[in-house]
Amino acid sequence: MRFSLWHSLKLSMTIVGTTIGAGFASGREIWEFFGSYGRSSNWSILLAMALFFTASLVILFISWKKQTRHYSEVLSHVIGSRMAKGFDGIVILFLLSSTLVMVAGSGATFQQWGGSFAWGVWTMVVAVVFILLFDLKGLLSMNAILIPVMTAVLILVCVQFLSNHNWIDPTGSPSFSTMPAWPSAITYAAFNMMSLLAVLSTLGKQVRHGMEIWLAGIISSSALGLIAALYNYSLLRVEDLVSQYEIPLFALMRSYSPLWVMAISFILWLAIYTTAVSNIHGLAFRLSTMFPLPRWLIGGGILVLLVPLSRLGFTNLVTFLYPLYGVLNLFILTMLLLYPLTHRERA
Fold it and tell me: What is the pLDDT of residues 9-68, one digit of tens each?
């Protein structure tokens, strides 16, 4: 089939949308994985994006060539069917717990806006199910609309901050960390692997030409790298203030009007929303092979079951659950990077 630039753009925005969750958009991930290591973190961003680019391409090419329906089928090609079966339940648990964190995050956001936790939770549930009603087209269209807006706003905040504080730091260089930054770059790339795998493994049948995958990988990694670099450079200029803010982004907006702060809060909620949609999308496609039900109904049922658990609290869930999946994510990233070498003779 013929190459489609628009299709490549939608694929790239889906990759970005799966990656830019609340942690990235708020600046917390950027600071913890990069900025806290000082100036050397600028180069570690390049390493993280190179790993991210390669892993995204491998997943999409496997999904396209093998016409996979969900992440378990991609894992079977990468690590073998026997090991993939063992990982299957762990990935399901990860997607469930990650979605639970997003649902709780929506409730916490509504509380900050002066609303109720329950309204925030149920708004998220309804909004996610609405996208699931349109299946793959809904996911691609949502990201094609929301991600350019989100990225533009984040870039605008950083550019505005740097314009007001001189692009070149007149006081000298930021502090250096005694720890090397490159291991953190690898950890960051691995951190996103399971969500990325869950989504991209369902998109193989949407690809019309191999060049669409290459272009989608280039656009998505370039966009993420640009935002991360701008964000990182900006946060390094206010490194003495970052510890005072739970959301580092607000350290760049100290002189902004309350209206701007509310708009940014909405962008953060959208980041939570796109991540929740990606996770539930991956879950619904996987579980639809086990239960003969519409995928939107499976996804909606999962969300309803998660609602009571959301009361465990956003911060508690993040602190307890996320470290549990670190080793698994790193293993998946390693196997994806090795796949082109270990399967070269079968290509």
Answer: 999 999 999 998 878 998 888 998 898 888 778 889 999 999 999 999 999 999 999 999
The residue range of the domain holding 130 is: 26-339
Residue 63: inside a domain, yes or no? yes
For residues 45 and 30, what is the distance between their CA atoms, to the nearest angstrom? 9
Q: Is 4 contained in some domain?
A: no
pTM (whole model) above 0.70: yes
Phi, psi (deg, nearest 5) at residue 70: -160, 175
CA distance 63 to 74: 7
Residue 300's CATH number = 1.10.4160.10
Q: Which two tokens stand for residue 344?
A: 């070269």
pLDDT digits (tens, 9 = 90+) for 191-226: 889 899 999 999 999 999 999 999 999 999 999 999
Please identify which residue in the block is written with the tokens 């149920």: 122
Report DSSP letters for 186-220, one per residue.
HHHHHHTHHHHHHHHTT-GGG---HHHHHHHHHHH
* 271-276-282 Cα angle (round to 5): 130
**How far, in Å, CA of 27 to CA of 24, rounded?**
5
1 in any annotated domain: no
Q: What is the chain's length?
A: 347
